[in-house]
Amino acid sequence: MAKLDGKVAVVTGASKGIGAAIAKALAADGAAVVVNYASSKAGADSVVEAITSAGGKAIALQGDVSKAAQAHSLIEAAVTQFGRLDVLVNNSGVYEFAPIEEVTEEHYRRQFDVNVLGVLLATQAAAKHLGEGGSVINIYSAITHLNTPNASVYSGTKGALNAISGVLANELAPRKIRVNTVSPGFVVTEGTHSAGIVGSEMAAGIVAQTPLGRAGQPDDIADVVRFLASDEARWLTGEVITASGGMR
């Protein structure tokens, strides 16, 4: 019996990168997975196809989690489709680097709306349906430890997420809902490629600081999330697991 048989999971921002790997990993362990996307329907459909071709259960659902109505509709549609909700993975995130001289209201609001407000709204909607043993997993970032130049806003969003995760772990614990956080180091994804990070001096510097000597891959993060979603992590809440190859 797979570890997640009978469970239903929603993974936000799952059309590519880490989110796609998480959706596939949860499905491989038996969960029925909702592959959420904001704009990339083709990407989400491709993830669903990969899951169903391997014998798993998945559907793609559009929804911008930074908008309250869409975040709540996403969760309601997931419950309507599969009858329950057991796992929420708050993976949706955007990043944009800029020196302090170039920080604008739009730059700030876009990142805080998705990376922070989106987590609050999705968790608010999910909490109505998560029962005893439910699991919320937030995707954080090791960038908050690096004090990376030009990342003040993005790092700020992830610092806020860390604080929120701790509060929610205590707030939802009486209902036996667990809240944990995974903090990836540098991971090679479509996003880090398109942002010009892969192959850059910054990436080389990060790898040089990584004891295991390489950049991360989406599956490295997905396997940690798979563990936290399972009953094997039943005694864990309020934890931050840094998946960074030893980089601090």
**Poorly predicted spans:** none
N-end to C-end Cα span: 37 Å
Q: Could you state the CATH homologous superfamily?
A: NAD(P)-binding Rossmann-like Domain
Strand count, sense and barrel status of the largest sheet are: 7 strands, parallel
- Strand and helix order: EHEHEHEHEHEHHHE
Helix content: 40-55%
Broad structural category: alpha/beta
| Beta-strand residue percentage | 5-15%
Question: Would you state the CATH class?
Answer: Alpha Beta
Radius of gyration: 17 Å
Number of extended strands: 7
Q: Could you say what the CATH architecture is?
A: 3-Layer(aba) Sandwich
The CATH topology is given as: Rossmann fold
The overall average pLDDT, rounded, is 95
- Kindly report the spatial arrangement of strands forming the biggest sheet: 3-2-1-4-5-6-7
- What is the total number of structural domains? 1
InterPro entries: NAD(P)-bd_dom_sf (IPR036291), Sc_DH/Rdtase_CS (IPR020904), SDR_fam (IPR002347)
Family: Belongs to the short-chain dehydrogenases/reductases (SDR) family.
GO molecular function, one term: glucose 1-dehydrogenase [NAD(P)+] activity
Keywords: Oxidoreductase
Description:
With 248 residues, the chain is of the alpha/beta class. It has one domain: Rossmann fold. 44% of the residues lie in helices and 15% in strands. The chain contains eight helices and seven strands; from the N terminus they run E-H-E-H-E-H-E-H-E-H-E-H-H-H-E. It has a seven-stranded parallel beta sheet, sandwiched between helices. The relative contact order is 0.15. Keywords: Oxidoreductase.
